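Feature request, filed as a ticket because there's no other form

It would be nice if the structure record came with a short human-readable summary line next to the tokens. Right now we just get the raw output. Example of a typical job, pasted below so the devs can see what we mean:
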Amino acid sequence: MKHILLFVFLWTTCIGQSQTKYYVDNIGGDDRNAGTHENLPFRSLEKINEQLFNPGDAILFKRGGHWTGICKPQGNGTVGNRILIGSYGEGDLPIIDAEGQKGEDDFLSASLILFNQEYWEIRDIEVRNFEKGNPIKPTKKAGILVLAKDIGTLHDFKFENLKISNVNGSLRTRINGGLFFNIIADSIPEKRIPTNFNGIYVNNCYFSDVDRGGFVNQSFWRTRDMDSKFGELCADGEINNWYPSYNIVIENSKFENVGGNGLVTRVAESPLVQYNLFVRCGSKTTGNASYPYNCDNALWQFNEASYTVYNEGDIDASGFDSDYLCKNTIIQYNYSHHNDWGGLLVCSWGKVKNAFNDGTIVRYNVFQDEKHHMIRFSGNITNTEISNNLFVTDAEVDDVMMWYKHWGGIWPDKTVVKDNVFYNEGTTHFLKLGETNNNSFSGNLLYGSEFADFKKFKTHTDVHKKTEKGLKLKIEQVRKIGLRNDFSVSEAEKVISTIWPDYLITKN
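Raw output as currently delivered:
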């Protein structure tokens, strides 16, 4: 609950009044106009890029308009007075499309770029970046790029009611995508200043046909191991410079046909990802629907992840993932179904000397009709708890329910699987343990077909028999939700309410 209260306070106290409104019309505008009235609008992105905007100013693009090029507005807002980019008039969202163009000094191609700026709100526009010819090796690009370098903390970025689509970026790198926050540093160490973001809010946005990721962030200030603090030596002899971003909230958004990962938060403290819908992520290359990487105390809840694509040779294609260099990740009240390579991955790469993944908790989720397996535990992960989840399988799960595997020569350790319900109509195999150690299985309940390799489930009682019919009816309702035609919003909360009607009592 502390996540939600903090973020509500942050976003409600940063809404200011516009000082000057600037209008842009690509048909009826003229760059010789004052630009400050609907009847006297600017015409071009170049004119916008010449301006220095002040706190509370607004840049409004006419609906139905289409601009080709790069928008690089200058200026900073202040607390309570963001600079706004939005729209006016009636009709379709205005479109800004860089078409793969890249300025001489730009980090990569992007249609909208903010560099070392803060207190901005972007809403009610469509951003594309489609390189003509759809080349086999496209330019590295993003729809929107927020770039920071050696400046300390940058505050308050709000993105609402956006469509970010048709970004045919490179599949060879993980640092491009639809909305990309990146922190870089000077090549000369003495000039470097620890830098982060405090306040990234994404709400009601639609990411479609974007490569390689939908929402992505990255930071130069990312080195750490399990136990060291900032400035101390890590296990590999490098200096801990982990300087996380704070107050990242991504909610009520849809990620569809994303070439790789739908959403990834990196180098962050307590990111909150909730009520999002993921459909057909990993459509071109290996990727999971969403996950935290190198984060502490990440919270994923009420998200729906579905139909993630497995490409031949992929190592990922799951609904959810707790990735490595993470501590205390919580994945709860989510709905995962029909993903090609399992519903959940918990992993850490053993070949990285500093790597770890400790304290992941996965609870009160529904995993339904995944392909191949249900959960994969991989590498040097420790103290993982899988509890109070419902696993529903059909014949598509043709390998195993729980798959433990070494990654980088190290096996998972200290995994607890307890108080889950398994409704099995699929595989005859429950576990693929390998050489993993110190695992615990207790209090789990099995309905449907038994497993040939595992019998340690709670004893079937008369109550168990009576509840089986009721559970089957609930599962039929859930399956109808997973096969619906309208995939516009996450139905995770509806699914959780169907399976656990009293979840509101326990969710906080």
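Something like this underneath would help us a lot:
The CA atoms of residues 22 and 36 lie 5 Å apart.
The chain has two domains: 1-285, 338-508.
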